[in-house]
Amino acid sequence: MNYRELGRTGWKVSDISFGAWAIGGAWGQVSDEESLAALNQAIDSGINFLDTADVYGEGRSHRLIAQLKKSRKEEIIVATKIGRRLPKQTVEGYSRANITSWIEDNLRDLNTATLDLVQLHCPPTGAYYHPEIFAVLDDLVHAGKIRFYGVSVERVEEALKAIEYPNVQTVQIIFNCFRQRPADLFFPQAKAKRVGVLARVPLASGLLTGKFRADTQFAADDHRNFNRQGQRFDMGETFAGVDYDVALAAVEEIRALLPPGVSMSQFALRWILMFDAVTCAIPGGKRPSQVADNARASDLPPLTPETMAAVRSIYDQRIRPLVHQLW
Ligand SMILES: NC(=O)c1ccc[n+]([C@@H]2O[C@H](COP(=O)([O-])OP(=O)(O)OC[C@H]3O[C@@H](n4cnc5c(N)ncnc54)[C@H](OP(=O)(O)O)[C@@H]3O)[C@@H](O)[C@H]2O)c1
Fold this sequence. Notes:
Elements: E1 3-5, E2 12-14, E3 18-19, H1 32-44, E4 49-51, H2 60-71, E5 77-82, H3 96-109, E6 115-121, H4 131-142, E7 146-152, H5 156-162, E8 168-174, H6 186-192, E9 196-200, H7 223-226, H8 244-255, H9 264-273, E10 280-281, H10 288-295, H11 305-323
Parallel strand pairs: 3-4, 4-5, 5-6, 6-7, 7-8, 8-9, 9-10
Antiparallel strand pairs: 1-2
The protein binds NADP nicotinamide-adenine-dinucleotide phosphate (NAP).
NADP nicotinamide-adenine-dinucleotide phosphate (NAP) binds near residues 204 and 294.
């Protein structure tokens, strides 16, 4: 496992980290026993950074992480998020009273005195034009409730605005073979400002593992069933917003590029790590075998310039015309 500096925090985090949404819920049935095994596999593989949120199973993901931390002696850095408990996303919802109360809930569920990193969880675009929201986070840092804060964004424009705030340490954004726009304008600026970048949905909700087919069925309580058109949250969070059949065809072209002995998931993650503005990819993992498979991407040799150009060309031809300007 390799480690990269997380912005200006002083932390070095595993470049393949762990996304803890699926172990909370919204991805079909999961058992806590298997989720804990997946978390333990993450630590065994050298992962030291976990991304979660208060709404992942309404505290379930938090409580599993608290259990993990209690049973392991390794340093484990936890990035969580706040804001999605609002019944409706409004700027007014990000009030001092609400933010303070979400933080208290997270401290309780994660069973800790201080939260390592708190991210605003895809607030409305308008929130980035309200410095008082960021001032509340500054106050919580001074009060010792949180060590650092950052944002999780939907759009490149939000990322660019967010990093104007000097104490925003991290930006979490969708970045994968099917979502390449962040690399154009945002990455150079994040690098210049030494802001950490967390690449989320790195496997395009599993599409880039190469395991899905046209007739694959998803459970009723799996967002890959119920959110394909953005019915419950932003459409981009499911399959990175790419039409399922278009994506399957692109996956087959990517499959032809795999070096021997490299899995599709590892290839997709290694592609992300080719961008040095990225601090880490945070693939979701429900099972220990998935986590181990993903972690191995860290130690793969770099992809060749020809391979990088080939992925870009697949994106340009099949994906870019459909989604590039949307996020
Ligand atoms: N708004 C936000 O801030 C936001 C939104 C989305 C995600 N996130 C964060 O980003 C993390 C990652 O994104 P994501 O979980 O949405 O999507 P993802 O990482 O692209 O896909 C994860 C899913 O792919 C499958 N998978 C993972 N590794 C695999 C492997 N090696 N082989 C086969 N299948 C594998 C698993 O589901 P199955 O086994 O069921 O196929 C897993 O749940 C989340 O966990 C969360 O922490 C944040």
